Amino acid sequence: MRAWRAALHQDPELSGEELRTREKVLQALRELGIPTTTFPGSLYGVLGLIGERTAGPVVALRADMDALPVEEATDLPFRSRRPGTMHACGHDVHMAALLGAALILSRQPRALGGPVKLIFQPSEEDGTVGGALPLIQRGALERPTVDYVVGQHVDPSLPLGSVGWGIGPFMAAADEFRITVRGRGGHASSPQQGPDAILVAAEIVTGLQALVSRVRDPTEPVVVSVGSIHGGTRHNILPEVVVLVGTVRTVSAATRDLMERTLKQRVRAIAASLGARARVDYRRGYPPLINPGPATRTVVRALEVELGRSSVVPVERPLMGAEDFARYLEKVPGTFLRLGVGVPGRSASLHSAGFAPEERAMVVGAATLAAAAVGLQRSGR
Predict the structure, then answer these.
(1) Checking CA distances to 114, which of 10, 133, 195, 320 falls within 20 to 30 Å?
(2) CA atoms within 13 Å, Cβ hemisphere of 117
(3) Which of 44, 148, 286, 328 is catalytic?
(4) Residue 381 has what pLDDT?
(5) Could you give all domains of the chain from N- to C-terminal order, each with its CATH number?
(6) pTM for the structure as a whole
């Protein structure tokens, strides 16, 4: 796993560009004697299949493959060789752990209670279509038909060696909005000739937070954030157009609908009250990730045997980040887990230039995936 992780980490590729990553995964699976399937075009996913002729439930295990546009700032001996690109979200660890699980399961065929499908998925970081949906549309959950699916993600908020689990909403839906405010351009010394698009945009940024504090149910987690504001060229010119881009995170379908509807209404009302116009383009991204109870409990019992009860910890609140693993759980039961990589005083956050999970996490990750697969197969027979 060290060798696999190092090779993947030092040659990261962004969403939709994972050609060399695919070749590394294919080479590793060939060395393990595991048959593989790839896809034509630029969908760089890889499927592997262990125990094809084994009778019993089919469990799919998934790892994501893509990196982020981040300049690495670690001291790893295998740090990224590609300027401006880095595995800053731990997908190198995910792939190495899945390959480790594949090694475990392929060498212990008598432990299997059915086939195990390996899904190496591209484009998770894409945030809109993603990679899970195209793989599903091209049959990743078929031939053989998958009965359960399991995935995991590194989590620096959990201690190294632990695995976090939860039932119900586990991660948020991620939607994107783009607001185009149109006012009247002119000299900054004469704002009364407005409307001033920058002032309107500022009122919109503030007004959006009232959706969280006064519109949604206070027991429902919601995040509304504006991440980008563009407008103007110099200090003494009022621009005609200002563009705001942001995200809405929710964990239920009803609240998701409510936030989309009321955000559009609020933005247009604020703009109109100041004499301006606003266009709202709202695009839905990944759905909420909902862990079903029966499959999750089965996996937890298997992990308590494999790792010990103290290492398998319940996570009480959903993470407001998003994951397109939710697409698989919309089709088949399963669960998504959090792989603890936190070390006190030494853990950088996800998506940061210094993120470098310790290699010991790969051992726990491989054992977690292998134990989850066997546990689900035994319970489903």
Answers:
(1) 133
(2) 23
(3) 286
(4) 60
(5) 2-171+288-380 (3.40.630.10), 173-284 (3.30.70.360)
(6) 0.94
